[in-house]
Design goal:
The structure is a homodimer of 443-residue chains.
Chain A: E1 6-12, H1 20-31, E2 37-43, H2 46-51, E3 55-57, H3 63-70, H4 86-98, E4 101-108, H5 110-125, E5 131-136, H6 152-172, E6 176-181, H7 188-192, E7 206-208, H8 216-230, E8 233-238, H9 253-261, H10 265-280, H11 299-316, E9 322-326, H12 330-333, H13 340-358, E10 363-370, E11 380-385, H14 387-391, H15 419-425
Parallel strand pairs in A: 1-2, 1-4, 4-5, 5-10, 6-8, 6-9, 7-8
Antiparallel strand pairs in A: 2-3, 10-11
């Protein structure tokens, strides 16, 4: 494999993160060092921009401005939710040929890796020397192969800081606080809430993950037990919380049956009423990939509030102070909450993608592994993995193409993370704010 | 009026803020300087703690620890939602007498000022020399007399940073994003979203305030117009958005009638279903003061999403990408988002309360005024106002006991803030993160 001269295209795809622009600037700054890379083009809105030949000249950006862009959350080039079909990839490839593109870097999640893989295959079939690299990003941290994903550390930091605040607020005015955290398939981000704990008794006091199944009864009884023993409760629930068949609660027949059994028919009526609103607005809550829409609505948190409030009222006859929030898009886009580790790793690994491509390697995804150290200090190294390993495209049908949390990271009672998880996650989140507390010395 | 020797009690009340502990530490650090102040007691959970004589020794805290506490959001002493009646205030006063308390500092909002006023009156009637001071705090910024309130700047900063992120996210993946902001009576916090704007075309593109009334038609048509001209829309709506009679949307008969008129009956059914859940959980959504519960639920955002989605679907036959978030409790408690200005002002004004009390003034609330400066730079001065002026307790029935946004701060079309507001608010929020953008030089 030899070095080849030509233009570079970089694009961003999928849900933005706090450091997706660090990856972009990592590609640009490294590309500037290599004389075989001629034009440095940005594709607006990922492969959608490639298809409409909407390219911007990234050599025109000053170093100063690039640093500002790198420090800014969300995709500076614009993003897309477009998953190109074989036909689209052929068109993308021909556009690359037409523009003399020899280097393509796609910053995104599983779908972006998949797209890169298809484009790479076409280039190989056509015997056209195209270097195709995937730079991982996802706040969900659910990509295969890699130890963790750029974007996760900052989102995890946001979640931890939100739960720090939640817990302090909940200590100030005791009651029950339930927060719904992003992550449809995997509980990594929900688990990050546990990093909010500093002092004895700190919340979150229970966490629920998509990797385990829960009944309503299990959930409300756990919340009740915590509330009864502590006088307060802070609870972290993944938006992907599911029944024993793996269906998310809001779309589960098992959960509906349980609601009926528990005498919570008013909640079923409410869910049905919500469905009729969706009908009136043009259809069920499905996104472009056929996933049910779980984010961008407060429904899951309100559902959890409803089952818990009704349960506690039935048990005690009293109305408890209960609030539920959906942490929402701030988890991936809040300006001003970036993990230093995450920012550096996003930048460096994207730069490495360019170095590997220039060195002659045709394709790959840049993954992370931990480097064992005598001191126990966290060190992270990058390595190139085959595109198809990261997308899981060659997996047999039915095998998960994403990475759930390791079993060792969830406690046996399924309502908490283990100390191993805390140790694993802590370096990724960077510095967390101080959490001071009075000694409360009695008079 | 003379100086008097005795113990000091400080308490915190109401919804926590990011700097309510700065006020606490301001009181403690200043109290330590005055030999007439003997014991420095903290009342746990505000006046509730006084009533159960639950005091902690704040002299036992190290300076280092106090700095950690000051930097930590939420009430370090614990808070309460308890509004003492005349009877309770008498009991509080007798407990103060019993413990030789001569100085009482109550950090809180309107209700805390009111409580302080009643306790002060009893002390005067009993001819007992008690110095009673209110240290304002509220993220809502709706206290009378003062230019602005400690707590507002940091909450405003959080809101601005959330909208910065929203806008960047919305640029990356265009669609409609609606966010509901705290502030039942006043739009100050919603207005802070406008500080997220840095570059041309930045959102929020429309804001709705409790100070103006809106019909559903006005709201959805405004969103539609923005979406049609920009291809995207970021919208900030106060949780207190109201009809022309001043009733909040979710409790408005006018809004119900309009929903029916607009053929949005499915939303009425959904609202009724929500009400039945509340019934099953022990009653309607009313808090301790008889206010409807607007925070801690995603209902308002989901309502706005529903009316907008149905409207746009009826108009275009197409389903638009629309998400709605309720910014939630993070606005008042998120750890790691503090305005430097707000922190300093909270600390200094609380210290001033102690100085004024020690100087012999019997009571008051420490308010802010701006100091005009030749350079136009922001300077703020503190002054003592009578307790009854801040609570508005002597206002005739029907006159608002809180401060709405000034008319000059809301545009004539009621969907935006004026440049005067931006100028007014900017110094209060402290430093905001950089918002970098590519020049997007076409190839």
């Amino acid at each position: 494999m030899e070095n080849i001269k030509g233009n570079l295209v970089v694009g961003q795809s999928g849900g933005p993160t706090a450091v997706i622009n660090q990856s972009l600037v990592g590609v640009i700054q490294e590309a500037l060092k290599h004389e075989n890379i001629t034009g440095i083009y940005g594709a607006r809105n990922g492969v959608e921009g490639v298809l409409r030949e909407d390219f911007v000249n990234l050599r025109a950006e000053s170093h100063w401005n690039l640093e500002d862009v790198a420090a800014t959350p969300s995709a500076g080039l614009g993003s897309c939710r477009f998953k190109p079909k074989e036909e689209d990839c052929k068109k993308i490839f021909s556009i690359f040929q037409k523009h003399g593109v020899r280097y393509f870097f796609y910053i995104g999640g599983n779908d972006s890796d998949l797209s890169a893989g298809i484009i790479n295959k076409i280039a190989q079939e056509q015997n056209y020397d195209l270097r195709v690299f995937h730079c991982p990003k996802t706040i969900d941290n659910d990509l295969l192969v890699t130890d963790h994903c750029p974007g996760y550390g900052s989102a995890g930091k946001y979640v931890a800081q939100a739960f720090m605040g939640n817990d302090l607020d909940n200590r100030s005015l005791p009651g029950i606080k339930i927060d719904v955290v992003m992550g449809r398939n995997a509980g990594w981000l929900t688990a990050a809430a546990a990093l909010a704990r500093v002092n004895k008794g700190d919340g979150p006091h229970a966490l629920c993950f998509p990797e385990r199944s829960y009944t309503i009864k299990e959930f409300v009884e756990r919340v009740e037990a915590i509330y009864n023993s502590n006088g307060r409760a802070s609870i972290a629930v993944s938006e992907g919380i599911a029944d024993k068949d793996g269906n998310v609660w809001l779309q589960s027949d098992i959960i509906r049956a349980e609601l009926r059994e528990l005498g919570m028919d008013s909640i079923i009526e409410w869910m049905d009423a919500t469905g009729r609103i969706e009908d009136a607005a043009g259809g069920a809550k499905l996104d472009a990939f056929g996933h049910a829409q779980l984010s961008g609505s407060g429904m899951m948190a309100d559902f959890l509030a409803a089952v818990t409030k009704i349960h506690l009222f039935k048990k005690s006859g009293k109305k408890v102070r209960l609030r539920a929030d959906t942490l929402g898009y701030a988890q991936r886009s809040f300006a001003g909450c970036v993990s230093e580790t995450d920012a550096a790793e996003a930048r460096e690994s994207a730069a490495m993608a360019v170095r590997v491509a220039v060195s002659g390697v045709k394709s790959g995804s840049i993954c992370f592994k931990r480097v064992p150290s005598e001191s126990g200090k966290y060190f992270c190294d990058s390595f190139r993995a085959p595109l198809e390993d990261v997308s899981g495209v060659n997996f047999p049908k039915g095998v998960k193409q994403y990475r759930p949390m390791d079993d060792k990271f969830i406690t046996g009672d399924k309502f908490d993370v283990t100390p191993e998880f805390i140790e694993w996650a802590r370096p990724l989140l960077g510095n967390l704010p101080v959490k001071g507390t009075l000694t409360n010395t009695k008079i």
